[in-house]
Design a protein that fits this description.
Layout lengths: L3 E12 L38 H13 L7 E2 L2 E4 L9 E4 L6 E10 L2 E14 L3 E4 L4 E4 L6 E7 L6 H18 L11 E11 L9 E6 L2 H20 L9 E6 L4 E7 L9 E2 L6 E2 L2 H10 L4 H10 L5 H8 L2 H12 L4 H19 L10 H12 L5 H14 L4 H7 L5 H13 L2 H9 L4 H12 L6 H13 L1
Bound molecules: adenosine-5'-diphosphate (ADP) and magnesium ion (MG).
The site of adenosine-5'-diphosphate has 15 residues, from strand 1, strand 9 and strand 10.
């Protein structure tokens, strides 16, 4: 058998952030209490009409623009008709004719290489209610009914689980940078349909695809792809390629396999038609331009900038752009003219270390970039040692004070005469050690430095201390 290539296309659904739902005034928020965030429309009461939430359109447009999609001239919706108990209206309002974005393309990073990913479309729709199954009953919870969903459909252009996973992580980060969603898989905010096929290496035609529905974790997506590639390759190897049918399967977490749900021919015809209760709404160029301007620089652009123009390592740049608020903090430091590498080091080691330890967020962190600047300039002036700087950093936060409040007390001992006296006294008390040192035990040098530090409670300027010690021990 010829070498096989896997082809993967993803359909990624993500719940968007907003105050109210996409077509009703009910709160868009998760709640443990079933049916607590609902409006009559979410339960399809007769006479209720949808009203489009502008914030949801705005968020969807932000994504559309960030994925370099084209936007339609006007906003419109379609009805996708099917019956299921979690869909009381008997149809889902979605976008088929005029998605909010089409023909996009982005660059993603996979194992330190950049690859393009083509976006077929992104469209705005509503989520369904959810069903809670118990032993002999099923309850319907309408809290999720009408929650804004953004569906992103890629072209079949991914070729491995690594690429698929990197793509999803990239998109999740974009959504967080844009602040359109928390994109939290743990909260069930992301669900993916994973389409997989295989083909001969030199084939020009795509193979028959299998769709695996509703995979809700990144590891689930990776395992699904792995499993499907193996299953399909084995069938092909055994000469049973015709058994790979266009079908819908589901990922079974327990057995770690995909299970047949239905064949393509059994699929319902959704009888799409234009949603008549929502008038078309023009998407004016001025509004689109305004939104474009509000989009922050995204993580990959920032990362490239940090590496190329600032000289950070790939590793450090990656840590800084992981979270937009950390990257914003770093950029604030640059604006304050703090040396880029020094601020990167401080953020990565001290600041993130401290925030992680106490489970704090950098957004409202007491130790602002301005305070970091104060601290670093004291370090540069040599008034404090780096050990002292780390201590002052903690004191400032814990006592909610300013860096300068600790400088007087901590000022480094850099007066040469004063240091000279202290060192002479120490050497006078360590005659034996000096002899040993002169006989060749040169590592005793650190012992002398240690004695000076002990005597001065760590305040002695280390450079000066070493210089004086060197001179005295030479003679
Ligand atoms: P359908 O009509 O079954 O919904 P679409 O052409 O709309 O199929 O594609 C749905 C998803 O399946 C898209 O993400 C697309 O990239 C992916 N896809 C299409 N053909 C293939 C294929 N041969 N192999 C893998 N994925 C595919
Ligand atoms: Mg489809």
């Amino acid at each position: 058998m010829k070498k096989q290539i896997a082809v993967i296309g993803l359909e990624m659904h993500c719940e968007l952030k907003s105050n109210s739902k996409v077509f009703s005034s009910a709160k868009n928020a998760y709640s443990e209490i079933p049916n607590s965030n609902i409006a009559p429309l979410d339960m399809a009461f007769p006479g209720t009409l949808p009203v489009v939430n502008k914030k949801c359109v705005l968020n969807a447009l932000k994504v559309s623009l960030s994925l370099n999609c084209s936007q339609p001239d006007y906003l419109m919706f379609d009805r996708k008709n099917y019956y299921y108990p979690d869909l009381p209206k008997g149809y889902q309002i979605t976008q088929m004719t005029k998605p909010i974005g089409i023909n996009g393309c982005i660059e993603i990073e996979v194992n330190d290489k950049l690859i393009p990913v083509y976006i077929h479309d992104v469209h705005l729709e509503e989520d369904s209610a959810s069903l809670d199954h118990f032993f002999d009953t099923t309850n319907i919870d309408y809290n999720r009914s009408g929650v804004p969903l953004l569906e992103l459909v890629t072209e079949p252009c991914l070729h491995s689980k690594e690429e698929a996973q990197a793509f999803l992580e990239h998109i999740i980060r974009i959504y967080r940078y844009l602040d359109v969603s928390d994109a939290d898989t743990k909260k069930g905010q992301i669900r993916c349909d994973v389409n997989v096929s295989i083909m001969d290496e030199d084939s020009r035609e795509l193979g028959t695809k299998v769709e695996v529905k509703n995979v809700n974790s990144l590891s689930g997506v990776a395992k699904t792809i792995d499993y499907e590639i193996r299953r399909q390759t084995t069938l092909k190897e055994e000469g049973r390629y015709d058994e790979i049918k266009q079908e819908t399967r589901r990922w079974d977490e327990e057995s770690e396999t995909t299970i047949h749900m239905r064949n393509k021919v059994d699929e319902v015809d959704y009888k799409y038609f234009i949603e008549p209760n929502i008038p078309r709404y023009p998407l004016k160029e001025e509004w689109i331009e305004e939104i474009k301007k509000s989009i922050p620089r995204l993580h990959l652009e920032r990362k490239k900038d940090y590496i190329k123009n600032i000289g950070l390592s790939n590793y450090d740049a990656e840590i800084l752009v992981k979270d937009k608020s950390v990257s914003d903090y770093f950029e604030e430091c640059l604006k304050l003219d703090i040396d880029a590498k020094t601020s990167a080091n401080w953020i990565i080691t001290q600041i993130l270390g401290y925030l992680n330890k106490y489970n704090l967020s950098i957004t409202d962190f007491y130790f602002t970039p301005k305070r970091l600047k104060d601290l670093i300039s004291e370090l540069e002036k040599n008034t404090i040692s780096s050990k002292q700087a780390k201590e002052i950093f903690k004191e400032v936060i814990e006592q909610e004070k300013e860096v300068k409040d600790f400088i007087k007390k901590n000022t480094q001992l850099s007066n040469e005469d004063e240091l000279n006296n202290i060192i002479e006294e120490i050497l006078a008390n360590n005659v034996e050690q000096i002899e040993e040192y002169k006989k060749g035990r040169t590592n005793l040098f650190d012992y002398f430095v240690g004695q000076v530090m002990k005597n001065t409670k760590g305040k002695a300027n280390p450079v000066l201390t070493k210089k004086i010690l060197n001179e005295k021990l030479k003679g």
